[in-house]
Design brief:
The protein has helices at 3-7, 32-35, 39-50, 82-92, 146-153, 198-206, and strands at residues 78-80, 97-98, 105-111, 117-123, 137-142, 159-164, 168-173, 176-183, 189-194, 211-212. It has 214 residues and is of the alpha+beta class. The protein has one domain (3-212). The longest helix has 12 residues, at 39-50. The protein is globular, with a radius of gyration of 15 Å.
């Protein structure tokens, strides 16, 4: 999938235009035609991706513990503590990105068999699998040469890009500024941060708040 289609990969429910589900993306390959997709096509692709997600409320809230990748059902949103997420990231065998701990927000974790992972930030009272597209989400997508592909995409019309702390690159599209993509040299993973607030999305990425779970 291209950078735009990565946005479609959002959430494990079929009503979130953010990035928390969608197990059927193909990976951003720097395809110039795909990169040039309009915002309308993006919305259509997102809707298709989200319909592949889990219906219902997902896993219920659970007590904090040691959570491994084998304990997380593919496509099923799971409430996780910070320690759960760190344990999961250590066991899954590839990088997982998040925006760190944020006050008054709990974590929802979703993975797919093809190594996509979504970490969504939910306020108190919101259950796993909530279908609303109003929550901050960080997605990790496997993507060969992700940094080089972002560099190529940055030259396209409508793209805004800059270097971020750690030597990575961010990119967003003026017509879809709520989704900010980032990648680092020598890694094969594309990261997308979605926020219903475009300024918040950009600020979190520019500040270096988005990084690997460790």
């Amino acid at each position: 999938m291209d950078v735009l289609n990565a946005t479609q990969d959002h959430r494990p429910d079929n009503a979130q235009p953010a990035l928390t589900a969608a197990p059927n993306s193909k990976g951003f390959r720097g395809n110039t035609k795909a990169v040039a997709l309009t915002a309308t096509l993006v919305a259509v692709a997102l809707a298709a991706a989200l319909t592949f997600a889990l219906s219902g409320n997902g896993n219920a809230d659970r007590r904090s513990g040691e959570l491994t990748a084998k304990q997380v059902t593919d496509g099923r949103p799971t409430i996780a503590s910070t320690q759960d997420l760190r344990s999961f990231a250590a066991s899954v065998g590839h990088p997982v990105f998040w925006a760190g701990e944020l006050p008054n927000l709990k974590l929802e974790l979703t993975k797919t068999a093809d190594k996509k992972v979504w970490v969504r930030y939910l306020p108190a009272g919101v259950k796993a699998g909530d279908k609303r597209a109003v929550y901050l989400t960080v997605a990790t997508y496997p993507q060969q040469q992700a940094f080089a592909n972002l560099d190529k995409a940055s030259k396209k019309r409508g793209a805004v890009s800059e270097i971020i702390p750690g030597g990575g690159r961010l990119l967003y599209w003026r017509k879809n500024a709520g989704s900010v993509y980032l990648a680092y040299p020598a890694t094969d993973y594309l990261v997308e941060l979605y926020s219903p607030s475009a300024p918040q999305a950009l600020k979190l990425v520019q500040s270096g708040s988005v990084g690997q779970v460790r």
